[in-house]
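Q: Please design a sequence for this.
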């Protein structure tokens, strides 16, 4: 497993990620081919009897580097080594930020920042403008956080149906308080067992 990341002065989402290398993913051993997104070499990595196949994959998650994976025919064995290449010179867009404007205004309205600008020369004006600009930028950095885009979890159709039935049974029992409707609420135990299968 490779953990890819960079050191930065501010947190930046999407700038780091994880790549997992899966070796020997042979179909006749009942090891399933990984779901996308994955990378595989363009040429075979294993040469068997009358069959050449790709059995090495790289699973990629939250990784914005353009990754290349190559099969290296250096050894005389039937399984070639592979090489993952992540270039470090890639350019990234700046992260999307969410700014809490109440914190931003409080930082700027702080008593330490309240002073009169008295400049009599061009250099003093430029230095005071530079100081004011740095205070505004620092207040913005302190009041901003990177936005995170969460992936929606996949819920099986059977579970969706059970959730709907449970909610209907709960509403019916709360309305009638009939013992038979209370028994229907035991559907929650079935849901718990099904949810544990998907974890």
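A: Design:
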């Amino acid at each position: 497993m490779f953990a890819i990341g960079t050191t930065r002065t501010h947190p930046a989402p999407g700038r780091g990620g994880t790549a997992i290398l899966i070796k020997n993913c042979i179909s006749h051993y009942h090891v399933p081919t990984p779901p996308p997104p994955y990378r595989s070499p363009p040429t075979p990595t294993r040469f068997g009897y009358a069959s050449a196949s790709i059995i090495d994959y790289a699973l990629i998650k939250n990784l914005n580097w353009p990754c290349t994976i190559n099969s290296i025919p250096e050894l005389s064995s039937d399984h070639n080594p592979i090489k993952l290449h992540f270039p470090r010179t890639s350019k990234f867009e700046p992260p999307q930020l969410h700014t809490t404007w109440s914190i931003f205004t409080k930082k700027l309205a702080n008593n330490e920042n309240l002073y009169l600008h008295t400049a009599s020369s061009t250099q003093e004006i430029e230095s005071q403008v530079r100081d004011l600009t740095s205070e505004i930028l620092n207040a913005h950095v302190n009041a901003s956080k990177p936005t995170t885009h969460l992936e929606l979890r996949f819920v099986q159709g059977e579970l969706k149906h059970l959730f709907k039935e449970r909610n209907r049974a709960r509403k019916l029992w709360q309305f009638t308080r009939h013992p038979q409707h209370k028994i229907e609420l035991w559907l929650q135990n079935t849901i718990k067992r099904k949810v544990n299968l998907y974890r």
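Q: Thanks. Anything notable?
A: The chain has a mean pLDDT of 70. The chain is about 35% helix and 20% strand.
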